[in-house]
Amino acid sequence: MRSLFSTYFPLFLLLVALMIVTTEAGKNKKDCKGWRFGACVAKNGDCGSGTREGTCDNQTKKMKCKIPCNWKKEFGADCKYKFANWGECDTAAGIKSRSGMLQKSLFDVECQPTVIVSKPCGTKSKAKSKGKKGKGKGN
Question: How far apart are CA 73 and CA 135, in angstroms?
Fold first, then answer.
């Protein structure tokens, strides 16, 4: 008669080996710390819901994302900039410009460190005394 040890020991070793292999395989996927994500790509058109793809070593995964429809599309939805005040109007070109410095990059997306935006010069000047409406009557 064989002892219980000699009967079940090979089965026990196989079970332990299987647990080690599955644990190591699971670690590689979960422990990757260098995930790099691409830009968000809208499903339809320039904005709205979409996906972004991430890679780490030889792994890839997709995440849901959203591009606001009122966002400056040339910078991407993942690059946040702090802008200076608008410059003087270039009367020859009819535009004014300002620069923005990169504040934050989401999902490790590559962003330009500095951007310049332009817009047409306004023909109307904004009224600066909007808060005085209704005051001063009866003085």
Answer: 43
Range with the poorest average pLDDT among 41-45, 71-75, 102-106? 71-75
Tell me which residue range forms the domain holding 63. 33-120
As for how many domains the chain has, the answer is 1
95 DSSP β-pair partners: 90, 120
What is the pLDDT at residue 33?
Answer: 80
Res 132 pLDDT > 90: no
| 8 within some domain | no
- This prediction's pTM: 0.45
Beta-carbon contacts of residue 57 (< 8 Å; ≥ 6 apart): 28, 32, 34
Q: Does 3 map to a domain? A: no
- Give how far Cα 120 sits from Cα of 20, 30, 117, Å: 65, 50, 11
Contact 99, 84 (CB under 8 A): yes
| 47 secondary structure, DSSP code | S
